[in-house]
């Protein structure tokens, strides 16, 4: 049986549901929301880095270049590799080096 949990993006106040077998990023896309940029979807590019403020989750493999062990323990993870185990509250804030990019495929609206 797949559980479904509520995801809350705290910066914009967006909410959507996520099944426990979907990643946070996949659930956002399925819900038609745009609060996290989409990149490789495989844990390698780092575009979808979020900060989980509350809730329980498990993680798939992520590039250590973008998420080291200390960051992971603090809830700074890649949305494409996060699977909820409870309702989650998270924040997405662009990394300073990405804030000025003009690549529309990765733009968050």
UniProtKB/TrEMBL annotation:
Example of a GO MF term: 2 iron, 2 sulfur cluster binding
Pfam family of the protein (one): Fer2
Transmembrane domains' residue ranges: none
Top-level taxon: Bacteria
InterPro entries in the record: 2Fe-2S_ferredoxin-like_sf (IPR036010), 2Fe-2S_ferredoxin-type (IPR001041), 2Fe2S_fd_BS (IPR006058), Beta-grasp_dom_sf (IPR012675)
Domain 2Fe-2S ferredoxin-type: 1-96
This protein's name: 2Fe-2S ferredoxin-type domain-containing protein
UniProt organism field: Halopseudomonas pachastrellae
